[in-house]
From TrEMBL:
Protein name: Endoplasmic reticulum transmembrane protein
Keywords (A to Z) from UniProt: Apoptosis, Coiled coil, Endoplasmic reticulum, ER-Golgi transport, Membrane, Protein transport, Transmembrane, Transmembrane helix, Transport
Coiled coil: 139-208
Any GO CC annotation of this UniProt entry: endoplasmic reticulum membrane
Cellular localisation: Endoplasmic reticulum membrane
The keyword Membrane belongs to this UniProt entry's keyword annotation: yes
Role noted for this protein: May play a role in anterograde transport of membrane proteins from the endoplasmic reticulum to the Golgi.
Length: 218
């Protein structure tokens, strides 16, 4: 019994060391514990733990009984002392065994929860990375669109400058043509006036000639 308890305690201590430190055997131990906690495994573990607890209580009761008998008799015989030491050792080993089993269960639970949180954090990081990549692509597309719009704006500005120069040139030509047309109108008026004067002079000459001819005839 004592050798079996020592074997169980040393085995549990080895499992705890494997779970605490990251070794190649840690994954295998975790897989084994996952399988133990599935199906009928928990029932078997609880049954074994309950049996050990019952034996522990029995050993404690036996120690209390031996101690009470020694108090009643006033002394403890060597046989009772040996039995007392044996029950104390068994109770200590069984208590340590239950405590280490509880430690293994808690370590397995926390390691599994830590793994799940790491996976969730990796998923969140992956989603954030994908979102950042999407934002980067969107920013790149916006940058390309802005570059295109700036090039288009420069092209429109150059076209506007050309059209403005053409408008100024057309306006200058229009002013020159207007001045030239005004000069032509003035020249036309002058020519009309000279024509009218020449007609008047011709008419006056005709009248003189007609008068001088009528005098000669008389």
């Amino acid at each position: 019994m004592i050798q079996l308890l020592f074997t169980g305690i040393f085995s549990e201590m080895a499992l705890i060391l494997i779970l605490v430190f990251k070794t190649p055997f840690r994954k295998l131990v975790l897989m084994g514990l996952d399988r133990v906690k599935r199906g009928s495994g928990p029932i078997i573990v609880k049954t074994v733990a309950g049996t050990i607890l019952v034996v522990l209580i029995s050993s404690v009761y036996s120690m209390m009984k031996i101690q009470k008998r020694g108090i009643d008799e006033g002394f403890v015989n060597p046989t009772d002392q040996v039995l007392m030491a044996k029950h104390l050792l068994e109770a200590t080993l069984m208590g340590a065994m239950l405590f280490l089993a509880l430690m293994i269960d808690r370590l397995h639970h926390y390691i599994r929860e830590l793994r799940m949180r790491r996976k969730s954090m990796e998923a969140v990081k992956k989603q954030s990375r994908v979102a950042e990549d999407g934002k980067a692509e969107e920013n790149k597309a916006l940058g390309e669109e802005m570059t295109t719009l700036r090039a288009r704006l420069k092209q429109l500005e150059s076209e506007l400058e050309v059209k403005t120069k053409e408008a100024h040139a057309s306006e200058t030509n229009a002013v020159a043509l207007r001045k030239q047309s005004e000069g032509f109108l003035l020249e036309y008026d002058r020519l009309l006036e000279e024509n009218q004067n020449l007609r008047n002079q011709l008419q006056s000459l005709d009248l003189r000639l007609s008068r001088s001819g009528s005098k000669k005839n008389t």
